[in-house]
Structure formats: structure tokens, C-alpha cells
Design brief:
1 helix, mainly alpha
């Protein structure tokens, strides 16, 4: 009976491991999706910062030009 008991115990362990692997696979997929959304948000933020930098540089150039005209 101990051989059958050990075989059933080993089978139970394998089934539990399969559940764990399935859970890890789902967690990795979810993490991948979150990382993808984060990368997209980072790109959007980079674009917004670039536009703001352009506006600031344009305003600085206009202010410098205005000062030269007044002098």
C-alpha cells in the first residue's frame, strides 16, 4: 500500500505544481500587460514634455528678440 500511497502523493504534488505554474503564467501575462501600458504612458509623457520644452524655448527666443528690438 505504501507504493500506491507514494504514487498518489507524487501525483498530487504534480497537480499542485501545475496549478502553481498556471497561476505564475497568468501573473506574468498580467504583469506584461501592465508594463506595456506603462511604456505607452511613458511615451505619452515624453511627448508632452517635449512640447512644453518647445513652447518654453519659443517663448524665451521671442523674449530675447523683443529685448533686442527695444534696445
Amino acid at each position: 500500500m505504501s507504493t500506491i500511497g507514494e504514487a498518489l502523493k507524487a501525483l498530487r504534488t504534480v497537480l499542485l505544481m501545475q496549478d502553481d505554474v498556471r497561476f505564475l503564467k497568468e501573473a506574468a501575462t498580467a504583469q506584461s500587460e501592465r508594463l506595456s501600458r506603462l511604456a505607452e504612458a511613458h511615451g505619452d509623457l515624453r511627448d508632452r514634455v517635449s512640447r512644453l520644452e518647445g513652447m518654453i524655448e519659443g517663448a524665451a527666443m521671442a523674449a530675447a528678440r523683443q529685448r533686442r528690438i527695444e534696445e
